[in-house]
Amino acid sequence: MRYGKIYSEIMERVDLSPRAKLVAAALDMMRNPTSGQCNPKMDRLAEATGTSKTSLRRALVELIEAGLIERHKPGKIEQSFVLFWGLLRAEKNKTTG
Question: Using alpha carbons only, what angle is made at residue 77 by residues 36 and 43, rounded to the nearest 5 degrees?
Fold first, then answer.
């Protein structure tokens, strides 16, 4: 299950709201495992998380401000996200290893 991949890096953080953690998990599940690309439509992401678009935007801002994702908007409707939890794991291993 892919959710287990992000558990320690995201779910245990006390500085994130439960909604931001849910959105992070949904983004991770929607990420293409081969290319690493993650470009869900806002409607799909809102539906997957059971949140309104306003709440979804707040959670995305929270994740961006925490340095966990980057958001790119190539068009009015299209968007893509860069997810950084793999980098967090590598840095954690560097400091503990």
Answer: 80
Q: Which two tokens stand for residue 24?
A: 């992070």
**Hey, what are 44's tokens?**
């799909």
C-alpha closest to that of 90 among 4, 1, 21, 8: 8
Cβ-Cβ contacts under 8 Å for 80 (sequence gap 6 or more)? 37, 38, 39, 71, 72, 74
Rounded to an integer, what distance in angstroms lies between the CA atom of residue 32 and that of residue 62? 23
Within 1-97, where are the H helices? 3-6, 18-30, 42-49, 53-65, 85-96
Grouped pLDDT means (10 residues each) for the chain, 97 residues: 61 91 90 83 92 94 91 72 65 51
Using a cut of 0.85, tell me whether the model's pTM lies above it: no
Alpha-carbon distances, residue 83 vs 9, 27, 50, 54, 96 (angstroms) = 12, 8, 21, 21, 22
